[in-house]
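REQUEST
  id: r-88c1
  op: predict_structure
  target: Transcriptional regulatory protein KdpE
  payload:
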Amino acid sequence: MKKGMRILIIDDEPQIRKLLKVALGAHGYEIEEATTGVDGISRTATFKPDLLIIDLGLPDIDGKDVVKTIREWSQTPIIVLTVRDQEEEKIEALDAGADDYVTKPFSVGELMARMRVSLRRAAASEHEPVITCGDLVVDLVQRRVTVAGKEIKLTPTEYELIKILAQHRGRVLTHKQLLKAVWGAAYDEDTHYIRVYIGQLRRKIEADPTQPRHIITESGVGYRLMDH
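RESPONSE
  id: r-88c1
  status: 200
  body:
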């Protein structure tokens, strides 16, 4: 991550803001803070951050609505802070346009790993012809998938699923986002499709499908292709 990148923190909890300001400041980030959603939206426009950290539990407006509003005019990476066991909140935030989430209480190391993935994706071309995740390689031009150099035979649907996961590697994709991308909007409630095809993919690309290294389940939310 480049030094001097600008991070806007939208959170009404002073101790969280202080923790993030000290930890991220120590890594050379320029930090700006907002304590309300309304202030956060206007500071996004003036401060022009490279990444936003938004707490979903804001005092004035719902954090998900802040994400939605910012997404109307900005593609800046957004990481939301959520409370444990609020799967519905996480899903709605991701569907609203957040790139990822971190559950409180969180470690700064975990947050920074998520930030690195989001910033790297924002900087990378959306049209990379070959995507590499550890020993898994997805060649978008030849529609070819290899693991440790060995070609994996996939059905068209399996390929579309691994392709969308690879294009968003490191980022969690919700069941709804995956269904919409692979099967179309009409199927966005049919989560059993996803489970079946993820199971098939794991049998083909994982050394041990019961202990997956590539396609990780985010419980109750969706799936993430690890960016090894």
